[in-house]
Design brief:
This protein is mostly helical. It is built from four helices and no strands. It has a domain at 41-74. The mean pLDDT is 76.
C-alpha cells in the first residue's frame, strides 16, 4: 500500500510551517556584541517570513493592491 501511495497517488494538498523562536527578555541579557550578531543573523529569517506568500497575500488584501504575490516579491 505504501509503495502505491508513494508512486501512483497524487498529493491532494501541501503545507509548510515556519516557527520563529525569540529569547525571553527576563533571562539575563547577553553582551551587546553577541546580541548584535544574533540580530544580524536573524535578518534573512525575517526577510523570508515577510516575503512569504501568506504574508504577501495579507498585504495585498489590506492595501487593496491589484498586483499579484509574484509582483509584490519583486518590489
Amino acid at each position: 500500500m505504501l509503495c502505491y501511495a508513494m508512486f501512483f497517488v497524487t498529493p491532494k494538498y501541501k503545507s509548510s510551517v515556519q516557527l520563529l523562536v525569540t529569547r525571553n527578555e527576563n533571562i539575563e541579557r547577553q553582551s551587546y556584541q553577541n546580541e548584535t550578531k544574533t540580530n544580524i543573523d536573524m535578518i534573512p529569517t525575517y526577510k523570508e517570513i515577510v516575503m512569504s506568500e501568506p504574508v504577501l497575500e495579507k498585504v495585498k488584501e489590506t492595501t487593496g493592491e491589484q498586483v499579484g504575490v509574484a509582483q509584490l516579491k519583486k518590489i
